[in-house]
Design a protein that fits this description.
This protein has about 140 residues and is of the alpha+beta class. Helices cover about 40% and strands about 20% of the residues.
């Protein structure tokens, strides 16, 4: 492909401070029409909260989303990619870890974007996109 992640990523994604509640995160996700909320501290990525995390780790457990902090239920072992890497590397990482979205993080840990399966579908090669979807769906 030859395209860098920086060329296809969604820049400046909406983020949530670590001390915000799950209810706050869910409202932000609804307003922004996204299924992912990066959790940050001083612009550094510390976790990722998905709509599925909210459903499984909060709602299904009967927890109060106003009282649970987003960082408490977010995934903290997050696979990331550097903005200088190319789409081929993103495809490999997404397939290996079976994820649909990768946070784009600079060397200092600062979150600068998110590259999603949809971004690759829009900008990438059709056959590679098909392979990615197949690998992630295994």
């Amino acid at each position: 492909m030859g395209q860098s992640i920086r060329d296809v990523m969604t820049s400046n994604p909406c983020t949530i401070d670590a001390d915000k509640s799950v209810a706050y995160a869910a409202k932000m996700m609804r307003e922004e029409d996204v299924g992912l909320a990066p959790i940050v501290e001083d612009e550094k990525l510390i976790g990722m909260l998905t709509d599925r995390d909210i459903a499984i780790r909060v709602v299904a457990e009967g927890k109060n989303p106003e009282q649970v902090k987003a960082v408490e239920v977010a995934s903290k072992q997050v696979v990331t990619i550097d903005p200088q890497q190319d789409l081929d590397e993103a495809l490999r990482i997404m397939a290996k870890h079976q994820v649909r979205r990768l946070p784009v993080v600079e060397e200092d840990g600062k979150l600068v974007g998110v590259v999603a399966q949809a971004d690759i579908a829009r900008k990438g090669d059709d056959s590679q996109t098909g392979e990615l979807v197949q690998e992630i769906s295994k």
